[in-house]
Amino acid sequence: MSTTYLAAIREAQAVAMREDPNVFIYGQDVGKFGGAFKATKGLIDEFPDRVMDAPISEDAMVGLAIGAAIEGMRPIIEMQFADFSSIGLNQIINQAATHYWRTGVPCPITLRLPSGGTAGSGPFHSQSMEALYAHYPGLVVVTPATVEDAYSMLLESIQLDDPVVFCEHKLLYYHLKADRLPTVNLPIGKARIARSGRHATVVTYSAMLHESLKAAAMIAEDGFHVEVVDLRSVKPIDTDTILGSVARTGRLLAVGEAFPWGGVTAEVLSRVVSEGFDLLDCPPIRLNAKDTPIPYHPNLWKAHRPTADSIYAALSELVRK
Amino acid sequence: MPSPTVVSPEKLRATFRWMLLARALEDRIASLYRAGGSIVGGVYLGRGQEAFSGALGACLSKDDGDIFGGLIRDMSGRLAFGEPLLDPVRAYLGSAAGPMRGRDGNIHRGRPQEGLPAMISHLGSLVSVVAGMLLARRMQGKQPCVGATSIGDGATSTGSFHEAVNMAAVEGLPLVVAVANNQFAYSTPTNRQYACENLVDRAHGYGITGYVVDGTDLQACLETFTQAVEAARETGKPQMVVGKLLRLAGHGEHDDASYVDPALRKEPSGRDPIEVAATYFDDAEVRRWQEDALKQVSEAVAKAQNEAGPDASEESWLALASAHLVEGQSE
Ligand SMILES: Cc1ncc(C[n+]2csc(CCOP(=O)(O)OP(=O)(O)O)c2C)c(N)n1
Q1: In chain A, where does DSSP find H-type helix?
Q2: Which residues of B touch A91 (CB under 8 A)?
Q3: Quick count: other Cβ atoms within 10 Å of Cβ A39?
Q4: Residue A169 and residue B61: Cα distance in Å, rounded?
């Protein structure tokens, strides 16, 4: 039986609630309805007191989670879309993220953010918010790209004693499948070499991993073998694995779906340039979405975000520099 | 209408003494601030709000697991609830020995696992946190305990406040929200803050019980908060208490409050709650309590003044409890 990325997220929550009576889920429509994407489908039947529909109050939802966490609970907050977490921004960055440092009392909350673009979703149901949250001290920010990671990293997120922003990509929900869920996996904070190669390194994460793997397959036809690094978590970033790969290849392309100003790809480049300048054979490249809001129409949307084709084009340039 | 509440003479006296302690401490902190050199950061006083705040703190029971989410002007309530006197002193003087260890200070302090969550500056954002603490208590079968938090007239305009009170009402949580209407938010008068007749009208909109009280009268405050806290404990539902009073200080000690019309001090809501409550007691007794308060404050200040501030070279700089996930640890 195969499991989807979405089912893995549901299963991780079920397992976490079975193992720990302090875990509960709070979010809009997560109860009987099972959530806008069905990530909590059926959970209320097994845990009638621990899956609760929340009012449309992202600020209060996160505040409630923080209060519950202070008292020893391990709340999971489902944002209906990552985009709406902006309403809870203050609680996330100022209350949750500062709590442990200020008071010494941990704040173990998991914020699930259905993230990223899908065709026709437009400016307010497509955003990738990881860079914003990664900027603030006191938060862990993860971006699983595979079914296995969605499962094991969500379980680990719930167990961590810190606030975790769990960016799950909506485009991966249904079509990504795995034969079975892992019992062991890499921990949060470790990147993974998703494809080995020697001519260039692509550092990426979340849905862009799959576009990058396609591009790597395309350029392999031209005789270039590209290594693809899946960051898995963007805060912390596994700089050692990135530098190790660049040491092998000498060339770097960082790919992200988020907006171009600052962000994860900029962070990757800045670390490689400042810590591994001598490893580089040519200037590194970044590829991001365009610096406009995310368009509604698929014709525009496809051109707004990086795709296998645009990554292939960037790689073609990079390997010939 | 709930039946009239009887407040015992012991409770009246005990709460008044917390008010005197808060006033003595804040007077001392203000004078240290003016003298310069020892106070780290700004100073925000609860002068004028001691009865309203103190009565709330005194109506809760820390030992029974109640929660008090104090805000800017809750020195009196925090002390009455059970915050150790040394906590505010250390926070203001920047001692590393206090619970905030110099990482935060002045009014931004607490002991979250002892029912004293530590406010952040962003107004309105503590209400949902207290609600979450109460939800956890309910899920853990630790009821009935009550959680209270206070808010100024200005902060009732935040979305955060609205979201949280509405959510607490939806979840049916034993939350007491004390709205201290001190007629100003920094320099802004209430007619630039809300357009309803009285803030208590909002309680109706949230489907919760509202109370109005003369915030300058300790006896009245104790009666009302006793009712509200008991109602929260018995019904498990939120209660909103609105107290009318006047901020008898600047917004902070940096502010001369010249924008406050002196005529407001002549209104009943402009009375000094300590002067009002002092009339309940014998003058000589009040003087003895004041002297005792001054002594406690002097001892606490002297102790904290001898304590070192935080040492940057010994600071761990770890913002995460999961130390292995903090960036730059291996470097
Ligand atoms: C969300 C937010 N906006 C602005 C401020 C700056 N600020 C601090 S206190 C204050 C006035 C608060 O007025 P009120 O809520 O009436 O309480 P009071 O100071 O009168 O006790 C303001 C504007 C803040 N702390 N939080």
Answers
A1: 5-19, 43-46, 58-70, 89-90, 97-103, 130-134, 147-159, 208-220, 239-249, 263-276, 298-304, 308-319
A2: 125, 128, 160
A3: 25
A4: 46
Is B239 domain-assigned? yes
CATH number, domain containing residue B159? 3.40.50.970
- Domain holding B163, by residue range, is 9-323
- CB distance A251 to A284 below 8 Å: yes
User: In the predicted model, is pLDDT for residue B4 greater than 70?
Assistant: no
The verdict on residue B1 lying in a domain is: no
| A125 assigned to active site | yes
Indicate the number of domains in chain B.
1
- Cβ of B119 closer than 6 Å to ligand 1, yes or no, is no
Stated length of chain A: 321
Residue B6 is predicted with a pLDDT of 85
In a domain, B149, yes or no: yes
Q: Confirm whether pTM is higher than 0.95.
A: yes
Whether residue B328 is contained in a domain is answered as no
> Can you tell me which atom of ligand 1 is nearest the CA of B193?
16
Q: Is A181 helix (H, G, I), strand (E, B) or coil?
A: coil
Residue of B nearest to A139 (CA): B320
HSE-up of residue B202 (Cα within 13 Å, Cβ side) = 22
Domains and CATH numbers, chain A: 3-178 (3.40.50.970), 192-319 (3.40.50.920)
Q: Does B182 contact ligand 1 (Cβ within 6 A)?
A: yes
Say what the ipTM of the complex is.
Answer: 0.97
- Chain B nearest-CA residue for A275: B331
A58: annotated active-site residue? yes
